[in-house]
UniProtKB/TrEMBL annotation:
Annotated ranges, domain Bacterial Pleckstrin homology: 139-230
Annotated InterPro entries: Bacterial_PH-related (IPR027783), UCP037672 (IPR017259)
Highest taxon of source: Bacteria
Parts of the chain that traverse the membrane: 44-64, 71-94, 114-133
Protein name, entry field: PH domain-containing protein
Alphabetized UniProt keyword annotations: Membrane, Transmembrane, Transmembrane helix
Organism per entry: Clostridium intestinale DSM 6191
Length: 246
């Protein structure tokens, strides 16, 4: 997520500089006559300010992670749409010149430059998203008194053996829907909800369909490893340390 936030931050800076007209869709392909109707610097400020607000919105879950209020996940898309609408309104009001500029004052936009930077941005963006979706690990450390869970994209968690009320191994669980967490091609991490457990915490690899389900003092915790055999081994090790029968 931070990579995406960084890219949007860079885009914000370029636009807010007043020299990012070549990045503004529609404006960068318009004729000189059409561009003469707009104040390019104001347009850049408006676009940059709007992009800055969107960047802050995207950064909220990256900063607070599991402490992000769930309602914000519902409000974020609404806020982004609202910012987009405001940008469109301001772009066609305060950014318009009362009297169009003389055509000779309108600078040519280097089409090659526009295409080049747009492609670079898109390549970096999609490469970053692809990287986030296909990488990451979950590691489990069985210490003397607790299980320490280290996750790549979500806060670590520790569970004291004494807090575990019951433990069982299950196959093909319907994990339900994510309510506050991270999901990728490789991992599912965070708060989930399904018909079986209600609200619960999940740390799992998507390809492994065998899960360890623990009822703890703080709620249900579901975990697994990259494959069935390692998950079964982890289950046996936890059972041995907690002295809970299968």
């Amino acid at each position: 997520m931070w990579i995406v936030v960084a890219l949007f931050s860079l885009l914000t800076i370029v636009l807010f500089s007043g020299k990012g007209g070549f990045l503004i869709a529609g404006y960068n392909t318009a004729s000189k006559e059409e561009r003469a109707k707009y104040n390019e610097k104001k347009l850049g400020y408006v676009m940059g300010s709007g992009m800055g607000v969107i960047t802050i919105i995207l950064a909220i879950p990256a900063i607070f992670k599991e402490n992000t209020p769930r309602i914000l996940y519902w409000l974020m898309p609404i806020a982004i749409i609202a910012v987009t609408v405001v940008i469109m309104i301001l772009s066609n009001t305060i950014c318009k010149e009362k009297i169009p500029r003389p055509i000779e004052e309108v600078k040519d936009i280097n089409t090659g430059k526009t295409i080049k930077y747009t492609l670079i941005f898109l390549v970096i963006l999609f490469a970053s998203i692809g990287f986030l979706l296909t990488t990451g690990d979950i590691k489990f450390h069985l210490n003397e008194e607790n299980i320490q869970i280290e996750a790549s994209d979500w806060p670590d968690k520790s569970v004291n053996y004494k807090e575990i009320k019951s433990i069982k191994i299950m196959d093909n669980i319907d994990i339900g829907r994510r309510t506050n967490g991270m999901g990728s091609i490789k991992l599912n991490e965070g708060h989930f909800r399904n018909y079986q457990f209600g609200d619960y915490i999940l740390y799992s690899y998507t390809k492994c369909k065998t899960y360890i389900v623990m009822e703890t003092d703080s709620g249900t915790l579901v975990i697994n490893t990259e494959n069935k055999s390692d998950t079964e081994k982890l289950y046996e090790d936890i059972v041995e340390r907690t002295e809970i029968n299968k």
